[in-house]
Structures are given as structure tokens and as C-alpha cells.
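Standup notes
- DV: blocked on the single-chain target, sequence here:
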Amino acid sequence: MNYYEAELRALKKSNRFRKRVLVDYSVRDFASNDYLGLSKNKEMHAFTCKQLASSPLHSPTSSMLINGYHQIHKDFEKLLCKLNRFEDAIVMGSGFVANIALIESLVRKNDTLFIDEKFHASGMLIARLEYLHVKVFHHNDADELNRLLCASKAKRNIVAVEGVYSMEGDLLNKEIFNICDNHDAILIVDEAHSSGVVGENLLGVFELFDIQIKPNYIKMGTLGKAYGSFGAYILASSHIIEYLINRAKPIIYATALSLYDTLLAHNNLEYIIKNKQSITKELNIRRKMAKELLGIESKSMIICISVGNNQQVMQIQSQLRGMGFAIGAIRQPTVSKAILRIIPNLSQSADDFLELCRCISTQNG
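- DV (later): unblocked, structure below
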């Protein structure tokens, strides 16, 4: 029985049908979130494998709360705390799961969640739980958030935003930090697309904005983007981390993060700090090229070009693939209007990005 035949037919008709596509190594990759090109760094991979080979185990084998918490996890958490100036940290399976863990466990009865309308789908998914009281505010609108918080009668107010928004690539409105402080609101900042990309040490928007870490701040970051690995971390006060360990189901009931991925992310983070000047220079070269050649000024590493409709954006993506470039084609309803999403990551040369920009100018008129 084809139980969902009608639904699939409707998706195809509206040009919203998705499918898995195998990685094509013959094309130049400007679609992935491998911002610093570390997924291709064979030296770091070999170094990590050599380190792990000396460990009694090469996989965690169980939940962190049973017998799956290893020194490799603890060492990486300590490094994250030291660099980001937070009290405590915990690593876990993915950014998607981390956002679910945070929102599902922190927002209790009589609390209110205030979430940016362009927050990641992981947050929006869990925000649909019937027992959660949720207010969605307009994207980066600090004034609206302030009005909503002023009117709130909740026991606790929790605000969820992103450091760099994953589709448009724009930065978080810095004023939101002050507003949350004024209302004693817990602030969750998803730094999946800003860690490794902005800030003096490439640590994200907390560093970029020179934010003094306070007990109401929570930072979530992923390891599968700039850090060239897989997984996620949550940074917060020791009080909040203790609470998550005791209440967050994805921490309690899931196998601990892969030892290889944790160790690789640790090594890659140290590599980023050591090479921050040369990395920042390369990032800035690509940002400058995007401004000069495409007329797009981005402070992140996400270049967003509005196209018009789902069919057209897929056609342009296909044409560029034929020219040897892989880029993202993001369709409705993920975004309000179909876009080309280009990541000028450091695994591809600046000359390749130059060629891509010229091709895009031709294709997009």
C-alpha cells in the first residue's frame, strides 16, 4: 500500500519534493556548512585516530549518566568553558537534539517561551508541544520582545534566538541581550552558524559583541559545521547544567557523544584558536568578494540570494551544478521566498568562489 501517495504527489507538484543526493566529489562544494574546510583536514583526522587508538575504548557504549561519560568528553567540556568563559558545559548528539533538550526541559508549567520567528526548526518543533506557553516574536525585533516581556506574568521567561540565522546569515540583534537582562529572562543563543565564524577568536557572537557571561545566558553550539566533526554542546551556569543532566531526556536516555567526534572537535577547536589570524583573513577575503561581485554584505559565511519561486531556484541550482558547483536551493515553506544559499567555505579556493560569483551573476540576471 502506498499510504502517502497523495501527499507525495502534492509535494512534487509544488516543487517541494526532497530526496537524498550522494555527495559528488567532482563538483566544488559551496553548499555545506563546513565553514573552515576542516572536514577535509587529513592531518587532524590522522592525529585524532592516533590519540583514540591509545584509549581503552573507541566508543562511549552508554548514556553519560550510566557509564558513558569519558575523560575525552570532560576534557573537551573544560576547554569549551575556558575559551567561552562559561561555568559548565555538556556535550551531546546534535544541535537539533540540543535545542529540543533545552526547550523541553527548561520551559515548565507557568513559564513562557519567547522564540524568534526564524529560529531553527528544532526549536519550532518542540515549541508546538501543547503544554508549552509560547510567544513567537518578529525576527530580531528587540522592541517587540521587550513589549512581550513587559506584559508577561510568567514564573520564568525563556528567550530563544540564534547567533547567526541559518538561512539569511544575519547576526543576532545585540540589544536582545540587554532586554533579557532587564527582565531577568533566560536567554538561549543557538550559535550553530556563528561559532568558528565570527569574533576575535572565532568563538561566536558572545565574543563578537563582548558580552559578559551571566547566569541567565545559555550558549548552544554544534560540532558538525565550523568544527568539522559531529555533535553539539551546551554552555551555561553550573546550576543550569546540573538541571539539564537531571531533566533533559536527550541527555538522560541517549548514548553519549561519539568519542572520535568529541576528540576531533577538541583538536579542531585548538587548531582554530592557533590559526585564528590566517583563518579570519581568508574569511574576510570571501566576504569582500561577495560584496564586490554579488552586492551582498554578510558578516557571517552565509550568502543568501532571493530567487522568486521553487521551480526557478531548482533550475538555477541544476545549471550551476552543470558548471561544477554545488550550492543550496532552499524552497518554501522552509523560507518565505525561495533562495540560493551559498557557503564560501575555506575548503574551496578564493578563485573558485570568484568563478562561482560570476556564474551566479549570469544565471540570476
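- Follow-up: The domain at 9-35+301-363 is CATH 3.90.1150.10 (Aspartate Aminotransferase, domain 1).
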